[in-house]
Amino acid sequence: MREVEPHDQALAPWPMLGRLLASRRFAPLFWCQFFSVFNDNFVRNMLAMLILFRLGETEAGPLITLAVGIFMLPSLLLSGAGGEMADAQDKARLAQRLKLAEIFVQAAAATGLWFSSLPLLYAALFGLGVIGSLFGPMKYGILPDLIGKHELVAGNALVEAATFIAIFLGLIAGGLSAGGRTPGGTVLQLMVIALACYGSSLFIPATRPAAPHLRLNPNIFASTASLLREFSHDGKLWSRSLAVSWFWMTGAIALSLVPVVIRNKTGGGIVVETAISALFALGIGIGSISAAIIARGRIFLQPVPYAAIAMAGFLIDVGAATWSLPMAEAEVDLPTFINTAAGLRIAVDVVGLACAGGLFVVPLFAAIQADSANEKRARIIGAVNILNAAFIVGGVLVTAALQSRSVGLSEPALLAGLGILNLGAAAYVLRCR
């Protein structure tokens, strides 16, 4: 994977980040992304905590893993259509329509929480996945229309930081809601954030359609197949996209396994689970901003293989730290968890894994955007999202099967195995340089 530099002079990162956050051309997209991801993770973590602690499900591990697959499945089917929609029309207008629809999906999630209904919460999660699959190509496709090429790494870093800070807060809010907050207060919060998301979308600058004569293919399967077939012919974009998809699969599997490990092996309760998930989100944000600081205005791929090696090391260590621990007999609070050797080691590994992940994915995605033709950029992003979804859905389904009683692999073994596989990913990105 060769690095690409848009110009010879590296730029100071901090002023660039500040200018983007204060600019009318970028800030509305930033906040729209922030509120949207907050909504997604509020519902996802609320569902996970309900399964783990309030509903007493005996098959909690596979059910939580299944929730990840349900959320990602629409991306596998609809990202191609989302790319076509974004290329064929004003991307800002598309964002506004999607965020209006999200208000009604959040109402369904609020109803599911009120009645502690798993089917309703799963349905809302699927609806959020549908909106996310259509929003993703627009979100990343519009970015090069709003900012310069030399700002792409910084812009992507801020979008990823917004994503994972919102995950951080959404995880906390979801955990608190499942842990006993009054349903009325949670319903109000869900609806206020959904309205804020729609409101911020109204300020995204309008853009000209990249391919105004593009006709949408109503057959989503044919559209997806055609898009992937065309996309696979570009070796450079294809290899980078496979690497990005590997990252998202790794993160999804890790986030489905670590909560079960913490509950079963350390006795960590809702507060501990929420804190560790929040540390993961915070680490991704730190890694993403670090990627922008290192790049200094360039499309800079040098750190990518080394970040993959670091991801492998932290995953293996999480597995090693919990492999021989007995099943926990009592619930522990956050101070007790952090004061144990295993708890502190898990926390450090989670932060390290997340920081390495941010350093891994941000430069790769910026390079994909920079090398994509304007008239089909959103469709290319859609193809990347299809690959992401395929990797995530495939990965979590395999993980759920390996967790099931018929196979019975433990979560620490699965985490360590995922780390070993990441060594192969590091070798792949090194070979593709």
Automatic annotation (TrEMBL):
Q: Give the location in the cell.
A: Cell membrane
Keyword Transport appears in the UniProt entry: yes
Q: Which organism is this protein's natural source? A: Methylocapsa palsarum
Q: What is this protein called?
A: Acyl-[acyl-carrier-protein]-phospholipid O-acyltransferase / long-chain-fatty-acid--[acyl-carrier-protein] ligase
Q: What SUPFAM superfamilies does this protein's entry cite?
A: MFS general substrate transporter (SSF103473)
* Transmembrane found in the keyword field: yes
Which biological processes are named by the entry's GO terms? pteridine-containing compound metabolic process
Residue stretches making up the Pterin-binding domain: 378-433
Entries under PROSITE patterns matching the protein: PTERIN_BINDING (PS50972)
Q: Where is the signal peptide?
A: none
